[in-house]
Amino acid sequence: MSPPALNPANALLLDNQLCFALYSTSLAMSKVYKPLLDELGITYPQYLVMLVLWEGDDLTVSEIGARLSLDSGTLTPLLKRLASTGLVHRLRDTEDERRVLVQLSAAGRRLRQKAGDIPHCVLAATQCSVPELVSLTRQLQQLRQRLAA
Fold it and tell me: What is the distance between the terminal CA atoms of the chain, rounded to a whole angstrom?
């Protein structure tokens, strides 16, 4: 069976655009996260970095960048700001000085406990069930993989 054809009359309607649905949803999610992250004193991109480090500490900038799909030009200023606030340490790798290692500080590890309620708050804001969010997340991950291929 072939996929349904796009109706040319509706193909350029804003509400029929996947990109706009993703973009506007991303903006709405950012509004949910902002007050929660303001309480922690970090931005959303910084939160993403912290999530990666809470999963596995002592990573290179390249490893963090690969996990978040960010290049070092974008990531380095983020990491410098996190270091200036005392949440991470940036160290040159003793085996290869071209590599920079990022480690959580004690304050960065404590921040994880303070951030513990964020997923529950986001779940409540979505008004979705856990299975619905798991399914939606998987679908978006699959879409991202397809687009990256």
Answer: 24
